[in-house]
Amino acid sequence: MSIAIRNDWTLEEIHEIYNTPLLELVFKAANVHREYNDTAEVQVCTLLSIKTGGCTEDCAYCPQAARYNTGVNVQALMKKEEVLAYAQKAKDAGSTRFCMGAAWREVRDNRDFDRVLEMVKGVNEMGMEVCCTLGMLTEDQAKKLADAGLYAYNHNLDTSSEYYESIITTRTYEERLNTLDNVRKAGVSVCCGGIIGLGETHEDRIGMLHTLATMPQHPESVPINALVRVAGTPLENNQKTDIWDMVRMIATARILMPKTMVRLSAGRTEMNVAEQALCFMAGANSIFAGDKLLTTPNPSFDEDNRMFDLLGLKPRESFKAEKQKLAEMFE
């Protein structure tokens, strides 16, 4: 039976889906995935830290927070030429989306932001979807990024509104939602998900999915991250995230948001190919490729290429959603 696109999911409905016996849940999610997406396609994204460390926030999972001693070296904003060279390398390796991250609490209207705008223009001219994650944005800043050619903006909720203050106290949940509203107003697509393994309950995971799935428009991308436990952070001794929890989150997200790119994000270095295959079967259709995610390890391009060959997967082309919309207009 066809699943409709809905934005009015109740917590009770999501609770029932999430707690479906696992194999049945994966089967249902796989059917939804097949109905709305090409299951052989996986969006390949590359994430680069263009300004590293020294962040004033206290996110309990983050090695870039200045207050934690994690061994991360503070690095100033990279030069445009260096960023574009890295983007070209990623494109040559098969990435179709390039995301630039800066360890800022919020964007400031200064020379560094002007330099980021030039980076966005440069990557856009390379024919890649360009994404940024720079912290909080005003409506005017989001508009400037859109005018420069920004395709997507990442701003994760991290967890449920109820558990949020246990992880972060330097920025409110409402401020995160306001930034997402500013991104939408600028016509930029939204990339927004969260992290599991922070010490949250299953109800917190359900709550986060409820917030995402009941937005007026579903995020175009939803990253599902497994906590990467970094020495020196408050969460360094948390238990490894169970693969079955990742599968359950991905499958539930796929059913709730059928057209969304569900990204198998941080934590893949602790998953073997079989475990990642289960995630793809459950509806994941996006990954970060390259040997580093900001400051934490990630599988290499070569490892992912071998996995794609084994599983019969192929990279999704850039701007496919826009090309499909244009094709439908002229049918």
From TrEMBL:
It catalyses: (4R,5S)-dethiobiotin + (sulfur carrier)-SH + 2 reduced [2Fe-2S]-[ferredoxin] + 2 S-adenosyl-L-methionine = (sulfur carrier)-H + biotin + 2 5'-deoxyadenosine + 2 L-methionine + 2 oxidized [2Fe-2S]-[ferredoxin]. Its cofactor is [2Fe-2S] cluster; [4Fe-4S] cluster. [2Fe-2S] cluster binds at residues 99, 131, 191, 263. PANTHER family: BIOTIN SYNTHASE, BIOTIN SYNTHASE, MITOCHONDRIAL. It comes from Danxiaibacter flavus. Catalyzes the conversion of dethiobiotin (DTB) to biotin by the insertion of a sulfur atom into dethiobiotin via a radical-based mechanism. Binds 1 [2Fe-2S] cluster. The cluster is coordinated with 3 cysteines and 1 arginine. Homodimer. Gene3D superfamilies: Aldolase class I (3.20.20.70). It comes from the Bacteria. Residues 40-268 form the Radical SAM core domain. [4Fe-4S] cluster binds at residues 55, 59, 62. One of its GO terms (molecular function) is biotin synthase activity. The lineage of its organism: Bacteria, Pseudomonadati, Bacteroidota, Chitinophagia, Chitinophagales. This is Biotin synthase. Its EC number is 2.8.1.6. Keywords: 2Fe-2S, 4Fe-4S, Biotin biosynthesis, Iron, Iron-sulfur, Metal-binding, S-adenosyl-L-methionine, Transferase. Transmembrane segments: none annotated. Belongs to the radical SAM superfamily. Biotin synthase family.
